[in-house]
Amino acid sequence: MSIEQKITDLQRTSAEQTAASQALSQEVAGKMGEIDQKVVEAKDSFDRWRDDVQAKDINGQSVYKSVIDLTGLSTDHFYPVWWRMPDNEEGCSRITISRGSSEDRNLAPFGQGAFIAGLNLQIEGVGSFWSGDANYLTIKRFSQTYRKTVRAVQFGMKCIARPISNVKPLYAGYESGQVVDHSWRSGCYLRGGLTYHVRKSFDGQLWYSREDGEVSAGIFSPANFEIEWKVKAYHIDDPFLGSDYEEHRLAYTLDYDKRYARKD
């Protein structure tokens, strides 16, 4: 084979190797592009999951948040708030009602420059009077700063009994206008003029009223009796609200103080 032929063969072989190398490079680049696209899609999927996931989806504890807006109302009145604790199947349910001590300062509910009110009310409980389960409500911690903001925290919301149609007798022999405990909802009364934040471990609804007059907190009307539980706002000095709560930042001390109080 002549030198010229050998040179020609080497050039052809080199060209073939170069073409093969270029083809391989293009294939690798294509694969890298596919990998990059899959990484982008996986990141987008994770970001969507992160935005939507809730604690219950990963066996965690859900927190349901809401706001009680009593701004613009009289700070000399307390307004009703009520809810129903789940039964035993959800274990011990929790609800916290709170507010920062300087919140609503732009509204100056107690006058310009005045301290406002801080609250951290932590409640645990199960069921209602008509439930067949553990049925209790306890105040775990109770802190109020600068001003008192909560009254009448009760397992059975403090209500007024009213007839629905006056066709059937009132439940349990109650008289219209009688102060009674709600049979299946708990509640309390919060001071007007302020904003409160609610965090619950359960998905059930929480209600409140901004009205001064009576509103319905539920009705029940089987064949032989009826009742409508009514709630309304009360003046700060109304005996209906009971006494103020003292500070109890150590867990469960409010219950302990009542349970182990000296008996004369």
Brief overview:
By secondary structure, this protein is an alpha+beta fold.
Question: Could you characterize what this model shows?
Answer:
- By secondary structure, the chain is an alpha+beta fold.
- It has 2 domains: 53 residues; 198 residues, no CATH class.
- 22% of the residues lie in helices and 30% in strands.
- The chain has 2 helices and 14 strands; from the N terminus they run H-E-E-E-E-E-E-E-E-E-E-E-E-E-E-H.
- The longest helix has 50 residues.
- It is elongated.
- This is Phage tail protein.
- It comes from Vibrio coralliirubri.
Helices and strands in order:
Blueprint: H1 3-52, E1 64-69, E2 77-83, E3 93-99, E4 118-126, E5 136-145, E6 150-154, E7 158-162, E8 179-181, E9 186-191, E10 195-200, E11 206-208, E12 215-220, E13 227-231, E14 234-235, H2 253-259
Antiparallel strand pairs: 1-10, 2-9, 2-11, 2-14, 3-4, 3-10, 4-5, 6-9, 7-8, 7-13, 12-13
Notable features of this structure?
single chain, 264 residues, alpha+beta, 2 domains, five-stranded antiparallel sheet, 2 helices, Phage tail protein
